[in-house]
Amino acid sequence: MRTEVLGADDTHESPTVAAIGAIHGDEPCGARAIERFLATGLQDRLQRPIKLIIANERALAASSRYVEVDLNRSFPGDAESDLYEERLAHRLWSEIKGCVTLGFHSTVSFDSPFGTFADPTFLKSRIMRALPIEHAADFSAVAQGRSVNLPRFVNVEAGYQQSEAAAETAYECLLAYLRAMGALPDSANQTSTMHYLVQTVIEKSEKQDYTICAENFQRVAPGEVYATTDQGQTLTADKEFWPVLMSADGHDVLLGYQADQLGEISQTIPE
Length: 271
Hints:
Layout: E1 2-6, E2 17-21, H1 29-39, E3 50-54, H2 57-62, H3 84-96, E4 100-107, E5 114-117, H4 122-130, E6 135-138, E7 153-160, H5 164-180, E8 194-203, E9 210-212, E10 225-229, E11 234-236, E12 242-244, E13 254-264, H6 265-268
Parallel strand pairs: 2-3, 2-4, 4-7, 5-6, 6-8
Antiparallel strand pairs: 1-3, 5-7, 8-13, 9-10, 10-11, 12-13
């Protein structure tokens, strides 16, 4: 794990703003955004200290999601574990305790950026609205052991995995986040961001190939077919929902999630 502390002055104030890339090693967009920021002169404009962290360097070097177990299913971690990512999760959580933190991810399911979080607060809503995203998914009902379960932690899914567009979007999101947190002097733009509450995990069989018939963040009506399989199975909606992270190829046993659309996040999570 690599940690860069920037913007510290003679007061020795501890950073309370952090950003993390490479929680998954095959999602390099966040690490690239951090490296790009470090290569610019923007750090000289910082108005408060920040931490920039490249988390799973071993997995990043191997372009692998993880080395032994999924880091993003291992929080808060275990310092005494035999498993590398469980020890790393403990180190990472110890590093960001007391910080508001933005994590970076990318997907195989959706090309546009969107936010994820759990346990809604006005601060998290404000960060979501400050990022250049149209959608924010609340995973409170289904997430366990993930970074979003940590206090004051939010994520952005920056676009397609391994793409140049995701790396560019991650950098734009990093700057927007730092502005929103008062770390950079420019004022943060507020976007209209729709709030979705993830309710149901949609599982899939490893023995079937799937075709997705629905679009992420687009309403699926009751009775509408949202996926089919090569063995003739048809998946039909029992009730309306909005797909989140739905993909035929993203996971071995996970097709995606069903969510409710709650409304504009500034209205659903008021100050």
